[in-house]
Specification:
- This protein has helices spanning 3-27, 29-49, 68-83, 87-94, 98-102, 131-143, 146-185, 195-217, 238-276, and strands at 54-61, 104-111, 118-125, 222-225.
- The chain has 9 helices and 4 strands; from the N terminus they run ααβαααββαααβα.
- The protein starts with a helix and ends with a helix.
- It has 277 residues and is an alpha+beta fold.
- Among the domains are: 54-148 and 221-225, Alpha-Beta Plaits; 152-217.
- α2 packs antiparallel against α9 (238-276) and α7 runs antiparallel to α8.
Length: 277
């Protein structure tokens, strides 16, 4: 038998197998349809029973005295309390009603790679109306932390002391410059370059401006990007749930149909063998 003839026979056998497969599925179409219907019904029931979850994110500017990692840990402590169902305690810490806390499905915080002074907080809630209130409550909670408040106050005092010291040095250098200018006018000798005094004064003044800017910017936590309240829920994704149910039901239905066919054929062969014996 030539190679070409063998290929034709194999191709013919494959065609026969596919056709037989189609006949078996056609015979058991009710099984396939019933399985798909069951899966679709289950998915629709799931969508009907499951509460819609709304998702929103916002950015919090972190004070200079604390790292974003530390700040995110404070937010995560709230998340841990929520998992432990300590709703009353969380409501007291955030200074909101317990109903608002019960509306929280998930709370998370993370540091942004490209930013050293910002963290991203993500809220997943059942009621989108509480998103703005919760974002403000979280910032207030962070600012009410006694340890952070003390560190901010300590940094503020440190900057104020540096500003006072540099301010006094600038005043002293300006007085020295007046004396030097008066001495030069009187024909006296100066054994250093008077221009160095001006450079030193300019350097101190530049430091003074920088320190004052830091002092003015030394505040608590602030919302740098407000959350956008979503109009549509993020979960459950209705289209995806229906599509997965349809595909899963179809595949399982086909499997059940073929399994029933195999079971029937195996039973028939067993009965034929029993008759022969």
């Amino acid at each position: 038998m030539t190679m070409e003839k063998q290929r034709e026979e194999l191709y013919y056998e494959d065609e026969i197998d596919l056709y037989e497969l189609w006949l078996r599925l056609k015979k058991r179409w009710k099984v396939v349809l019933a399985t798909v219907v069951v899966f679709l019904t289950a998915s629709v029931t799931y969508l009907f029973v499951t509460k819609p979850v709304y998702r929103a994110s916002f950015l919090i500017k972190v004070p200079e005295i604390i790292t974003p990692v530390e700040a995110s840990e404070y937010v995560k402590s709230i998340k841990r309390m929520l998992k432990e169902k300590r709703y009353e305690e969380v409501a007291r810490l955030l200074n909101v009603n317990e109903d608002v806390i019960l509306s929280i499905h998930e709370l998370s915080a993370r540091e942004l790679r490209k930013s050293k002074d910002v963290i991203e907080v993500t809220l997943e809630v059942y009621d989108p109306a509480v998103i703005n209130d919760l974002s403000k409550a979280i910032v207030n909670y962070l600012n009410s932390n006694q340890l952070i408040a003390e560190r901010i106050e300590l940094k503020r005092r440190e900057l104020s002391e540096k500003i006072n010291i540099i301010d006094k040095r600038i005043k002293a250098l300006k007085e020295t410059k007046k004396l030097v200018d008066r001495l030069i006018k009187q024909g006296g000798e100066v054994y250093f370059n008077p221009a160095e005094i001006d450079k030193t004064i300019q350097s101190f003044e530049s430091q003074l401006v920088s320190l004052k800017a830091k002092l003015n910017s030394l505040k608590g936590f602030e919302i740098s990007v407000k959350p956008t309240v979503p109009e549509e829920p993020d979960k459950p994704k209705k289209g995806l749930v229906i599509a997965v149910a349809l595909v899963s039901g179809l595949f399982l239905g086909i499997f059940l149909a073929l399994f029933l066919e195999w079971l029937e054929e195996a039973k028939r062969r067993h009965e034929e063998e029993a008759l022969k014996t």
